[in-house]
Design goal:
binds NADP nicotinamide-adenine-dinucleotide phosphate, Rossmann fold, alpha/beta, single chain, six-stranded parallel beta sheet
Length: 302
């Protein structure tokens, strides 16, 4: 049995969808089983038998707001994660925990490897780094998956926001000096399921993927401006945008946010691809699939 925590979030929803499609037994919980209250978690595991895997997609994800809501961010991303790790240990379950490229400061000139030193710039990154530490201190049998620039069907994200703006305005400015790799939740969810299936749901299979940290995003590296241009191109070709909109590049200085973001947060994906013996799709291939899918939700454009 798999316990999916944060099952109503953007990534959680996609993992739930893929578990169902593959007829894999799971139980999903979200805010009703509050991760910040360990008694809630203890009571929950008493009611479900044979949990062998926990996938944690719950988190505090509001990067800018975290600067003001420091305690809440810490409570979810560190205390809550530690609670989950303690429960995993107690019931002898493996844990897959999701983390972020924002644990890095962006000063690298080449894609970050799992072994590179972390140095987060803001509260969100600091609390996510603390969550990673809590997992590695409590457990041996864990996977920490760092991802980045996530978008998917069920949740507010950059792609929906851009389409909405492109339909409403004649011109928009998008930063062209922050580089990363967009990630479609469907590709990340597939990678997570692959880890579980390669190790075995209920019993360990031979040669399982080693525990530890893995980086998983789509392939390729671009700026937010490049990302917006491609959204516009595919959106225009497929009648998702009805008017003309000029996409203009601007600098981070011109468009300041509360939190300093890494200017370069590309993650090196060699380890996960080699370990799981598969190739992640390029960001633009996945963006097209997302935009043309029947699961694409027009209501997010309203
Ligand atoms: N989104 C990105 O661009 C991005 C980039 C890199 C890494 N990540 C990481 O990827 C993971 C998934 O992100 P996401 O965008 O799918 O997040 P999300 O949509 O914000 O989902 C998080 C879920 O956790 C729930 N939650 C909040 N407080 C909780 C609590 N106390 N107990 C149980 N559940 C609670 C949220 O409920 P409410 O919505 O009702 O609060 C939400 O359903 C996170 O670990 C995030 O840090 C995301």
């Amino acid at each position: 049995m798999i316990w999916l925590i944060g099952s109503k979030g953007m990534l959680g929803t996609e993992i739930a969808r893929q578990l169902e499609l593959n007829n894999i037994n799971y139980v999903g919980t979200d805010k009703e089983v509050d991760i910040t209250n360990i008694e809630n978690l203890e009571n929950f595991v008493k009611s479900v038998k044979n949990i062998r895997w926990i996938i944690n997609c719950s988190a505090y994800t509001a990067v800018d707001k975290a600067e003001e809501e420091t305690e809440l961010a810490q409570l979810l991303n560190e205390t809550g994660v530690k609670n989950i790790a303690l429960i995993a240990k107690k019931i002898n379950s493996k844990l897959i925990h999701i983390s972020t490229d924002y644990v890095f400061d962006g000063t690298s000139l080449i894609p970050y490897k799992e072994t590179d030193k972390i140095s987060p710039l803001g509260i969100y990154g600091i609390t996510k780094a603390a969550g990673e530490k809590a997992v590695s201190e409590v457990l041996n049998e864990y996977y920490i998956i760092r991802t980045a620039w996530l978008y998917g069907y069920d949740g507010k994200n950059f792609v929906y926001t851009m389409l909405k703006l492109m339909n409403a305005k004649n011109e928009i400015k998008v930063v062209n000096d922050q580089f990363g790799s967009p990630t479609f939740t469907a590709d990340l969810a597939y990678s997570i399921l692959r880890i579980i299936l390669c190790r075995g749901i209920d019993f360990d299979l031979p040669n399982p993927p080693e525990y530890g940290i893995y980086h998983c995003t789509n392939l390729g590296q671009i700026s937010w401006f490049d990302f917006a241009k491609e959204i516009y191109k595919i959106g225009k070709e497929n009648n998702l945008i009805s008017s003309i909109c000029n996409i203009m590049p601007c600098s981070t200085e011109e468009y300041p946010t509360k939190t300093k973001r890494p200017s370069y947060s590309v993650l090196n994906k060699d380890k996960i691809q080699k370990t799981l013996d598969f190739k992640l799709p390029y960001w633009n291939e996945s963006l097209r699939i997302f935009l043309l899918s029947p699961l694409f939700k027009n209501e997010f454009l309203l």
